[in-house]
Amino acid sequence: MNGPREDEPLFLVGDYVTITRDARTRLVVAIGGDERAAGLLQTRGGFVSAAGPRGPYHRLPHSLAIEEQRQGATAAAHALLGAGFSVHLDPALNVLGTVGGDRQAAHRYLAQLAERARAADEDHEVAAVLSEIATPYEGLLPRLVETLIAAWAPWSERLRDTGRAPDPAHQLIAVTSRLSEHARRIEEIRNQAARKTAPPTTAPSAASVPSSSPSEPSVRRR
Hints:
The chain is α+β, with helices and mostly antiparallel strands.
């Protein structure tokens, strides 16, 4: 076998590491790499080791906020790249990504959520999708309501201060209020889907109920 030519670059790639968000658990996970990669994930990104069904992997702690997750994932990816590893970092986790990249990541997230909804064949799977949509503070609809309120408040003041008709802003907040109510209703539906129902109890059959012996007098209960 011929060795590498002098006019070609020599890539010193130790291993391939993927850093992404798991679609089911929403945890940020890192898969691949060796012990040196594991050390960088832990020291530079704050990852912790975990045992999975197909072998060990790394993940970020449950308690981190979304922006902290993105910062840890980006820091780990850059440290791995600097150490010679080949890294795939989910664009949604890259704090250096552009606004357009964030929009594409949001579209991908919605597409993944729709796919999970189509594939759901158990009530708890439906509940998980509805949680992403309507969970207070973190769900898609509450976030959308928050954004609409942020647009309405200064717009309403600007219309009033300039003497213009406030009707458009009033219409916006009315629609936003209804949307917030719909989010609460979807959350209630989610709770119904997630609630575990006890198996129905059946009355004992006539064959299982002991009958009085013909020789015994019947007892009349008061």
